[in-house]
């Protein structure tokens, strides 16, 4: 297990190195001069030279890469052209809200996707299976930004069941101010017992979380269905049938646990995917997370900010994959000896 | 009399290949492609630049209404299909060709060549595809070609990995060994044995990917990184309808539905084909 | 315990097994012999209604229950508790992520064994006894299938039958995946159960050596049909059908 961990960690580091190089390469692809972008179009030659000096733009590329990596390690992720704040601080402020949104979405995805997948596998080729296949296919095919607009129009605009936008009712900041611990509003409100903000956040969270949950719910349902059907065709399912277990208990008591292993690695994958989907959804719901930050940075072509977001999400993705691989060892006893 | 114990359908299940889902998806795709190809004849108001009345709700004259500039939404949705489909075709052609070539080289050559190619592939796969496409599209000038390039750059590694595994398994088959011993040059072996065997899995992968490419392209255009006015592109049209969504819902709704239906059709076909052709993924009896 | 008349099993209209008569009484051991594809496993599985997508006709009674007429629920009640299956590939027959003890406990609870005073002793005692009866250490209950050997897995499958109080064991090639010394262990366990507990044993095998040591009667199947049947001693020494002779000659 230890050796496996070490090897897996080595792989992850290699990928991180590649990700950093790739991000650097993309940033240097910028056709315009980054110094001009920073100093503004009306800058004097002296200001331009200062900017070039500051970003080391006159150095050879390898030296720039080394400097870039050194800066990343020392916590200097560059300065946003739009907010004029260090990118790292911007990300630090935006990240918790994204975790809140994606976390809620994945919770929905797991709680709906797995049972629905079980249902489809149980009634394979019958109507429930058909419905689940059809529905999950729709869920993975829907453009999230359009779904966000449609749900917002129907449930917030017309029916007025949910608030249109925002993370919570900001007037609550004065009536019942929130003590920050984790910076994730819903969690902080829960642990400090701040019920007004807690319920308000849940209320605001519902629609965006549903939108972001669509894709993961679909893939989790499909994956659960496929692996369960495969498991229930294995030899051991025949023995369980011969022991008198019914089809439903074979699926839920025996087949589900090994089937969860691929579902788990899928969750790591869709976690990062959902963060990126947030780029398309958060702005619509004015959700103060990475996605809104990224969308605004994209609109103003704020390359340092975009590089920062890209790097952060890619790191989260690598980390999530690593965590899942380790968890898998605990979920599927066969993986441990592999 | 039938066995009551087997609580699985006793009726003979319908033959799996042509899967009903795949067939339905294929029919939808044919319809969508036809609609896009025949847009100039099907579209009610094909001669674009004479604006009608702006922001009209759907009616007999304008089934999908008109947008704020007075353009018929149905016409633009039909023309948008041409943009989306040609983006998808270009992306898939470029990434499949490039990816398969690299993969075949990696799988057949082995050794350090394989290691280098596969490590680079791993790094690309370590990015969520949409993220890298976004980062690339941001630094390039917004256009349809940018979208194609940005997506193709993130998509080829899947084909490389696929082709490499097929090629590696074929390279060790006895008849390939025999051919090599007889002095048949490597490019010829690749052409005769490796490529034909990679074809089916690659085709399945392409049909599985098409939906994702269409969604990604729409997302990039929605963020303003792709097609620009006055090009009709579904993602861009949704974005243009966004500010008016609460009052003039039809401007953004119909292009969004078009994305959904097209991606859905390709996903159905892809899943159905995979079930039919890939024995491992096939639902077990 | 097992009574079969005119059993016909068809897959997609093709006849897979045709067994006119097959009886196994308590304490008896009957073997079905034949090469793969002869319909012997199909016959065995159809006795518990475990064939999938098959059309079955005829008359099958197992432990007094009409299998072909029974409801799914009625079938589940005899499966395991009265008639237990031992499968060919021992390890893949056990759910990979379930500890053996958990599997056994679930099966016992499912059939209500150990509840009240019906067989005396708590669940734990029943489990320990059954494992001891097949000469396994009780620590095996804490293990996962991939941590035990094929012979242990096969003996555990038999222990399941004992714990559940099964009266009939249906064994599908129980030794073919094991090596010779382990085969002897499993056969020994089966034979002792039959002698001490009066279990009925229906065995499917292509291993004539195994059959000659344990079976009372033998059915020889070829292409779905029974070509010869009778007491093991006669069939194996004076085969009447040329196919049986062929099988015997193939023995080393």
From TrEMBL, chain A:
Taken from the UniProt entry, a GO cellular component term is: plasma membrane
All copies of domain ABC transmembrane type-1, residue ranges: 95-328
TM helices/strands, residue ranges: 12-30, 101-122, 134-155, 195-215, 263-285, 305-331
GO molecular-function terms, A-Z: dipeptide transmembrane transporter activity
Keywords from UniProt, A to Z, are: Cell membrane, Membrane, Transmembrane, Transmembrane helix, Transport
Q: How does it sit in the membrane?
A: Multi-pass membrane protein
Q: Which InterPro entries match?
A: BPD_transp_1_N, MetI-like, MetI-like_sf
Extract the PROSITE patterns matched here: ABC_TM1
Which Pfam families does this chain map to? BPD_transp_1 (PF00528), BPD_transp_1_N (PF19300)
Keyword S-adenosyl-L-methionine attached: no
Its annotated compartments are:
Cell membrane
- Judging by the UniProt lineage, the source's domain of life is Bacteria
Say which family it is in: Belongs to the binding-protein-dependent transport system permease family.
The protein, known as? ABC transporter permease
Q: Taxonomic classification, please?
A: Bacteria, Bacillati, Actinomycetota, Actinomycetes, Streptosporangiales
From TrEMBL, chain B:
Q: Transmembrane region positions?
A: 21-43, 87-111, 123-156, 249-270
Tell me the first and last residues of the signal peptide: none
Where is the major localization of this protein?
A: membrane
The record's PROSITE patterns line, in alphabetical order, gives:
ABC_TM1
Q: How does it sit in the membrane?
A: Multi-pass membrane protein
Q: State where the protein is found.
A: Cell membrane
Residue span(s) of domain ABC transmembrane type-1:
81-270
User: InterPro entries, per this entry?
Assistant: BP-dependent_transpt_permease (IPR050366), MetI-like (IPR000515), MetI-like_sf (IPR035906), OppC_N (IPR025966)
Statement: the UniProt record of this protein carries the keyword Transmembrane: yes
* Annotated family: Belongs to the binding-protein-dependent transport system permease family.
Put simply, this protein is called: ABC transporter permease
Which keywords does the record carry?
A: Cell membrane, Membrane, Transmembrane, Transmembrane helix, Transport
**Which GO CC terms are listed, alphabetically?**
plasma membrane
UniProtKB/TrEMBL annotation, chain C:
> Where does the ABC transporter domain lie?
2-248
One GO-annotated biological process of the protein: peptide transport
**Molecular-function GO terms, alphabetical:** ATP binding; ATP hydrolysis activity
Q: Which SMART domains match?
A: AAA
What membrane topology does this protein have? Peripheral membrane protein
Keyword field = ATP-binding, Cell inner membrane, Cell membrane, Membrane, Nucleotide-binding, Translocase, Transport
Q: Chief localization class?
A: membrane
In the UniProt record, does the keyword Transport occur?
Answer: yes
- Compartment annotation: Cell membrane
Q: Name one Pfam family in it.
A: oligo_HPY
Q: State which residue ranges cross the membrane.
A: none
Record-linked PANTHER family: ATPASE AAA-TYPE CORE DOMAIN-CONTAINING PROTEIN, OLIGOPEPTIDE TRANSPORT ATP-BINDING PROTEIN APPD
Q: Which family does it belong to?
A: Belongs to the ABC transporter superfamily.
Q: What is this protein called?
A: ABC transporter ATP-binding protein
């Amino acid at each position: 297990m230890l050796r496996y961990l070490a090897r897996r960690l080595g792989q992850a580091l290699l990928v991180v190195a590649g990700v950093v190089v790739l991000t650097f390469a993309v940033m240097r692809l910028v056709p315009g001069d980054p110094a001009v972008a920073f100093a503004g179009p009306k800058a004097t030659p002296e200001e331009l030279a200062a900017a070039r000096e500051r970003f080391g733009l006159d150095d050879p590329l390898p030296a720039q890469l080394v400097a870039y990596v050194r800066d990343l390690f020392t916590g200097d992720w560059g300065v946003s052209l739009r907010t004029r704040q260090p990118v790292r601080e911007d990300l630090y402020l935006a990240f918790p809200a994204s975790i809140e949104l994606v976390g809620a979405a994945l919770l929905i995805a797991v709680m709906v996707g797995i049972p629905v997948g079980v249902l489809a596998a149980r009634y394979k080729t019958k109507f429930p299976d058909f419905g689940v296949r059809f529905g999950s296919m729709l869920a993975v095919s829907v453009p999230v930004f359009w779904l966000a607009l449609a749900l917002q129009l129907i449930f917030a605009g017309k029916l007025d069941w949910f608030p249109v936008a925002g993370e919570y009712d900001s007037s609550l900041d004065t009536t019942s101010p929130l003590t920050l611990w984790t910076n994730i509003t819903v969690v902080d409100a829960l642990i400090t017992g701040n019920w007004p903000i807690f319920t308000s956040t849940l209320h605001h969270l519902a629609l965006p979380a549903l939108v972001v949950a669509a894709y993961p719910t679909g893939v989790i349902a499909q994956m659960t269905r496929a692996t369960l059907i495969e498991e229930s065709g294995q030899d051991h399912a025949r023995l369980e049938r011969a022991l008198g277990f019914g089809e439903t208990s074979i699926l839920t008591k025996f087949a589900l646990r090994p089937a969860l292993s691929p579902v788990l690695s899928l969750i790591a994958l869709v976690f990062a995917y959902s963060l990126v989907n947030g780029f398309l959804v958060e702005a619509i719901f004015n959700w103060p997370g990475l996605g809104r930050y990224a969308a605004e940075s994209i609109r103003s072509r704020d390359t340092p900010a975009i590089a920062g977001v890209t790097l952060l999400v890619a790191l989260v993705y690598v980390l999530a994959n690593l965590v899942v691989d380790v968890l898998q060892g605990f979920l599927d006893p066969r993986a441990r000896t592999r | 009399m039938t066995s009551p114990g087997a609580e699985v359908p006793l009726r003979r299940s319908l033959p799996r290949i042509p899967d009903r889902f795949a067939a339905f998806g294929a029919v939808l795709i044919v319809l969508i492609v036809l609609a896009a190809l025949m847009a100039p004849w099907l579209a009610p108001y094909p001669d674009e630049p004479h604006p009608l009345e702006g922001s009209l709700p759907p009616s007999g004259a304008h089934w999908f209404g008109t947008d704020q500039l007075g353009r018929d939404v149905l016409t633009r949705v039909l023309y948008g299909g041409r943009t989306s489909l040609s983006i998808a075709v270009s992306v898939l052609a470029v990434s499949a060709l490039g990816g398969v070539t690299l993969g075949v080289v990696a799988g057949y050559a082995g050794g350090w060549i394989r290691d280098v190619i596969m490590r680079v592939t791993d790094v690309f796969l370590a990015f969520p595809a949409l993220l890298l496409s976004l980062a690339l599209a941001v630094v390039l000038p917004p256009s349809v070609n940018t979208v194609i390039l940005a997506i193709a750059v993130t998509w080829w590694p899947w084909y490389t990995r696929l082709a490499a595994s097929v090629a590696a398994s074929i390279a060790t088959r006895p008849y390939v060994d025999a051919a090599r011993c007889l002095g048949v040059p490597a490019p010829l072996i690749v052409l005769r044995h490796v490529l034909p065997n990679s074809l089916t899995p690659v085709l399945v992968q392409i049909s599985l990917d098409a939906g994702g490419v269409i969604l990604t392209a729409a997302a990039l255009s929605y963020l303003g990184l792709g097609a620009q006015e006055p090009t009709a592109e579904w993602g861009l049209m949704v974005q243009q309808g966004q500010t008016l969504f609460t009052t003039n819902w039809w401007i953004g709704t119909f292009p969004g539905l078009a994305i959904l239906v097209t991606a859905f059709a390709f996903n159905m076909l892809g899943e159905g084909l995979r079930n039919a052709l890939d024995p491992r993924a096939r639902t077990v009896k | 315990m097992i009574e079969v008349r005119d059993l016909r099993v068809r897959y997609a209209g093709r006849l897979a097994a045709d067994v006119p008569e097959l009886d196994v009484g308590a304490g008896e051991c009957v073997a079905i012999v034949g090469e793969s594809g002869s319909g012997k496993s199909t016959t065995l599985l159809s006795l518990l209604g475990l064939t999938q997508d098959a059309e079955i006709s005829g008359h099958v009674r197992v432990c007094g229950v009409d299998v072909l007429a029974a409801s799914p629920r009625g079938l589940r009640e005899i499966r395991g508790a009265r008639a237990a299956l031992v499968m060919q590939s021992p390890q893949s027959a056990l759910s990979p992520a379930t500890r053996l003890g958990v599997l056994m406990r679930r099966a016992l609870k499912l059939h209500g064994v150990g509840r009240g005073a019906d067989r005396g002793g708590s669940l734990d005692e029943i489990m320990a006894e059954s494992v001891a009866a097949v000469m396994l250490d009780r620590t095996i209950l804490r293990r996962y299938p991939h941590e035990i050997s094929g012979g242990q897995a096969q003996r555990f499958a038999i222990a399941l039958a004992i714990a559940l109080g099964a009266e009939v064991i249906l064994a599908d090639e129980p030794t073919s995946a094991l090596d010779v010394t382990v085969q002897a262990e499993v056969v020994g366990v089966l034979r002792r159960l039959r002698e001490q507990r009066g279990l009925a044993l229906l065995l499917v095998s292509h291993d004539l050596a195994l059959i000659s040591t344990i079976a009372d009667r033998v059915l020889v199947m070829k292409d779905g049909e029974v070509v010869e049947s009778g007491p093991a001693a006669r069939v194996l020494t004076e085969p009447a059908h040329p196919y049986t002779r062929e099988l015997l000659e193939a023995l080393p």
